[in-house]
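Example 9 (inverse folding). The structure is encoded as follows.
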């Protein structure tokens, strides 16, 4: 088993108690989905994945659980797991309902805009603090598309396409800025924040460091749905992010689903 065969669930924050238990932080839509799933895989500082049998899994909150692994019986042993990343095999992930998909299910899809037609390839979906982003490869450029209902209409799983309705001028901004950067070298890039009513305008401002936003992303348990895109406020309590034809292989979750553990 290796990272590419798994999704990243979260990480082990610290030892808990005196009997070898650990406190783990999860970045999934429904932590309860994993109470009876064993083994979980752990890796520390890039080491090979190690399967650990789960003896006890107690949900502490929507994002935390106290876990007892076989073979760990005291604080010192539990402390050895601190900082380890938790993984779970893709093939063993919870089955999703009709019309729900994991973020990684749509990687490689062709993006087709309802006005502009076929554009490029959906490289991945990256998770950001305020909103998730589709990363599209377009004519040799990296374009970031906010994963919100106004812009992302949903996937066609059979055709392997993602439908969009991009705001006017978004692609031009990326093409023009990249040309200017080639002339001027390292230039300052604008920051964007906000969504909702201001989404169309903020989407036209290239996020600072956008050219460097090329994450070696983990497979996320985030999900999508076929009928609408769900934002961050809908993720908790649903287990992994999904795509509902509207979540990281190890390392990264249009979209109504349960994704890419976030920062540790």
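The amino acid assigned to each position is listed next.
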């Amino acid at each position: 088993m290796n990272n590419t065969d798994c999704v990243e669930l979260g990480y082990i924050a610290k030892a808990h108690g005196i009997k070898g238990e650990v406190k783990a932080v999860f970045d999934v839509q429904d932590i309860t989905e994993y109470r009876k799933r064993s083994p979980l895989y752990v890796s520390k500082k890039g080491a090979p994945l190690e399967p650990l049998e789960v003896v006890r899994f107690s949900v502490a909150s929507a994002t935390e659980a106290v876990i007892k692994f076989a073979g760990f019986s005291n604080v010192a042993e539990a402390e050895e797991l601190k900082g380890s990343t938790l993984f779970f095999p893709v093939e063993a992930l919870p089955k999703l309902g009709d019309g729900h998909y994991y973020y990684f299910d749509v990687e490689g899809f062709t993006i087709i805009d309802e006005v502009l037609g076929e554009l490029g390839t959906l490289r991945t979906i990256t998770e950001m603090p305020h909103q998730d982003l589709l990363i599209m490869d377009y004519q040799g450029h990296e374009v970031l598309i906010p994963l919100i209902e106004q812009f992302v209409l949903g996937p066609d799983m059979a055709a392997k396409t993602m439908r969009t309705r991009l705001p006017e001028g978004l692609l031009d901004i990326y093409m023009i800025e990249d040309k200017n950067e080639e002339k001027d070298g390292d230039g300052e890039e604008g920051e964007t924040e906000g969504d909702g009513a201001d989404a169309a305008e903020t989407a036209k401002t290239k996020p600072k460091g956008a050219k460097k936003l090329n994450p070696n992303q983990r497979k996320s348990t985030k999900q999508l749905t076929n009928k609408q895109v769900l934002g961050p406020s809908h993720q908790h309590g649903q287990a992994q992010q999904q795509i509902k034809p509207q979540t990281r292989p190890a390392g990264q979750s249009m979209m109504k689903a349960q994704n890419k553990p976030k920062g540790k």
